[in-house]
Amino acid sequence: MAHTAQKGKLIAVIGDEDTCTGFLLGGIGEINKKREANFLVVNKNTSVMEIEEHFREFIKRPDIAIILINQNVAEMIRHVIDNHTDPIPAVLEIPSKECPYDASKDSILRRAKGMFSAEDFR
Q1: Does residue 64 belong to any structural domain of this protein?
Q2: In this structure, are residues 89 and 66 in contact, taking their beta carbons and an 8 Å threshold?
Q3: How far apart are the two ends of the chain, measured CA to CA in Å?
Q4: Closest CA relative to residue 39, chosen from 47, 49, 22
Q5: To 5 degrees, how large is the angle CA 97–CA 21–CA 13?
Q6: 9-46: per-residue pLDDT in tens?
């Protein structure tokens, strides 16, 4: 099935307070009619189960096109992220202030590398 860009799609964020605050200040924050936010601030008291539940809710929501998640948080729910194979919502792992980005851990990048060979880049 071909997917096209649609108006009104949201970006969701799962990350530490600094990451979420930055994106919220940038204007991505929204609370829908059901009082569901499109972001989750993860701190030391946030359980892995809570992160998994929010991620699963975000991938089911038809109004979300992209999920941005701090890579260190993504590591906590790697099995759930790896099972998400639909192109929309796209899941993009981003660095946090305390944890730099590690391309070897990014599941999307690993899948993309499997699609190409070294010959494709010559």
Answers
A1: yes
A2: yes
A3: 31
A4: 22
A5: 85
A6: 899 999 999 999 999 999 988 888 888 899 999 999 99
